[in-house]
Amino acid sequence: MNEKLPFDMDAIAKQAVDEIEHIKDEEDLEKWRIKYFGRKGIFATLTSNLSEIEQCLRPVAGMKINNVKKQLTTLYEEKKQSLISRMQVEKGKSVFNLTLPGLSSECANLHPITLVSREIVRIFQGLGFGVHTGPEIETEFYNFEALNTPADHPARDMWDTFYLDGQKKFLLRTHTSPVQIRVLQRLTVPLRIIAIGKTFRRDAFDASHSPVFHQVEGLMVGYDINFSNLKAVLTFFLKELFGSSVNVRFLPSYFPFTEPSAEISISCVICNGKGCQTCGNTGWLEILGAGMVHPEVFRKAGLRDENLTGFAFGAGIDRIAMIKYRIDDIRLFFLNDMRFLRQFR
């Protein structure tokens, strides 16, 4: 069908491309434009002559003309910009306006969870605590059984667990306490460590709950360690973290892996203990759980020395960050909103 057309668009396109490639100035480029795109140019002539060819060939002819016209129009614009840029350089003018201010790059910010984690590490390292990590995928032994929580123990209802298989052999850890057992199995006592990392529970994702959150776990084991040591360490830690004016309160509580156990609260940093919506008008904010390590935990870790004692504690880093920076929605930690993150430079 191509040979029946009264013109050869491929030949016309090739000739136009060859001509424009050899053009050196804007004057010759304008002559080229008029030759092909002017009112009496080649494309105008071809379009006006379409009525003279057979009707069945007109659609094909029109399509070929339009395709080559688009190709040459793009080529013309590129050549024009190239010539303008070259002339500016030859005349001593920069293509770019160097007096305009540059685009500033977005500086990275440390996440508030990172800031609080580093502060916690700084405080405990100053007290001689080492920092350890453990796997986020755990077994039931390390997550529950070694922590005095067997399969039929009612305390398992305290944690909604993500299991990774139908046989419940592997799970996403519900707390960082399994690191305690791994450290006790690996290191010799006396020891003092903290463990920081992500933990997972089947919680609804709302303003105060998240299925993924961060926790710090602490452990101190040796001889003649008692509850007074626990109180001294945690009181120092909380006053360093929230300020020396904060008051610390210890109340009896229950955890399967410590005995006795305590719930530790601080005086509300929002209302200074007077009572507000944040603290439920009690003047206190729960911040930590702690207690003396249960003897069964030592036995599960393979330690048989009856003279060993120790204390352990755990706290949610997300909650600490929310209190410290007065954040009212935990979901803000996960949105990557720069307007939020810029506040924590």
Question: What share of residues are in beta strands?
Answer: 15-25%
CATH topology of the largest domain: BirA Bifunctional Protein, domain 2
Major β-sheet strand ordering: 1-5-6-10-9-8-7
**Gross CATH architecture of the largest domain:** 2-Layer Sandwich
Largest sheet: 7 strands, mixed
Task: Give the termini separation.
Answer: 70 Å
Form type: elongated
What does this structure look like?
This protein has helices spanning 9-21, 26-37, 42-48, 58-90, 112-126, 140-143, 178-186, 227-242, 295-300, 317-325, 338-341; strands spanning 130-132, 137-139, 162-163, 170-172, 191-200, 212-223, 248-255, 258-267, 284-293, 308-316. The protein is of the alpha+beta class and 345 residues long. It folds into two domains: 7-90; 112-344, 2-Layer Sandwich (BirA Bifunctional Protein, domain 2). The strands form two sheets. The chain has a seven-stranded mixed sheet, sandwiched between helices. A three-stranded antiparallel sheet has the order 2-4-3. The protein is elongated, with a radius of gyration of 37 Å.
In short:
The protein has helices spanning 9-21, 26-37, 42-48, 58-90, 112-126, 140-143, 178-186, 227-242, 295-300, 317-325, 338-341, and strands at 130-132, 137-139, 162-163, 170-172, 191-200, 212-223, 248-255, 258-267, 284-293, 308-316.
What descriptors fit this protein?
single chain, 345 residues, alpha+beta, BirA Bifunctional Protein, domain 2, 2 domains, 7-stranded mixed β-sheet, 3-stranded antiparallel β-sheet, 11 helices, elongated
Element layout with pairings:
Layout: H1 9-21, H2 26-37, H3 42-48, H4 58-90, H5 112-126, E1 130-132, E2 137-139, H6 140-143, E3 162-163, E4 170-172, H7 178-186, E5 191-200, E6 212-223, H8 227-242, E7 248-255, E8 258-267, E9 284-293, H9 295-300, E10 308-316, H10 317-325, H11 338-341
Helix pairs in contact: 1-4, 5-10
